[in-house]
Amino acid sequence: MMAGEPTTWAYTAVSPAGVRRKATMVASSSREVSATLEAEGWIPLAVSPQRFAFTFDGVWEAAQGLGSRITTNQLTDWTLSVHQLLRAGLSVPATLESMSEDRSSPLAEISEALAEAVTQGEQLSEAMAAYPKVFDAVYRSYISAGETTGGLVPAAERLADMLTRKVRMRNKIQAVMTYPVLIGATIAVLVIGIVAFLVPRFTETFESLGAELPAATQALVTLSDIISPISSEGGINWFSPLLHAPWLVFLLWKLWVQVRDRPAVASRWDRLRFRLPIFGKLLHKLSLYRWASTFASALESGVSEPQSLELAANASGSRWQQQAAVQFQDALRSGRSLSTELTAFPFLYPPKILTLVKAGEEAGEMAAMVSQAARAYDDDIDRIVSTLSSKIEVALLLTVGAVVGSLIFILYLPIFELSSSALQGLRG
Could you tell me the CA-to-CA distances from 397 to 85, 182, 389, 405 in Å, in that order? Predict the structure, then answer.
């Protein structure tokens, strides 16, 4: 492991109240992890590089947690309610206790635990650190900045606004991604249904005819024999991929989830997905929008520029940006400008970002300039979504017709050839 290279560290820490926490953190060294934890009020007990470990216990725990995850919509509603109660003049403990009274809310128990921790003298941001899957580092930093400056109400307002924009942006992406996924799933089901269940019926017909099958039809029959869950003798084909597909997909997904956290894998994956033919530009601009909007909001909340860069990189969803943020932070601490460092990543941070960041540095209005970049990328995403929606619909419908039509044609090809041979025989 190279010194200074961002790595995923697994750590165990405990709060002054005795709350134990096990999680991971991306950092350049174990000392950085310990320093970050201590700054957040946690006492590190163990810090070590995260090893690749795929266990069935981990898979089972993940499966159990699928239904209990707090959604962004739920967190947004909770944050809006907290902001309204705080603005009405309620204290933090009273606000949290009020939120815990709604037992239908998935955050009721967490609100109760937070209220108890704050009543005992713990800072709200520190108490939230016990729930990293609900309140991420970006969320906690907003709260921490509000506590430091005495502006918890504006901090909650900015959080609610940020989460609302996040939901709105996610809905935009879902609008353009849902249709391709549904059509893709439809194509897959149709192809699997035809190959696994319809082709065997035709195979019996082909055998009764006794004719030699065309190469395309023979290939389709062979494929059907491999993937069909029913063997040619009428029993179960235990070697069929369809019988094992659900478990294989689930296990491969969990394998990918663990591997993708490795910095080298994650950054290469970003480089690949940002260059995809159709959706690459959309994914890249979405990552830049998240980066710019979070960076601007964090600066407006009073968070320091180096920490704001870290929060922005984490919110971007791009490990490539997270690795770049480490370099940016070192540069700022050394007195170098952010605009100069951005030039080292010309593809990741295009001229639009570079120009506005440089203007922000010169005018001393970094938050305002980066906020303009976020709005510009928001508009770009709107245009891309509108364009893709119309083009994808036509392309996918044509794809469905071409795939299903080709399979049906290949199935009927021997019958067409036999009919043609019979007609020629009659004429002869």
Answer: 50, 12, 12, 12
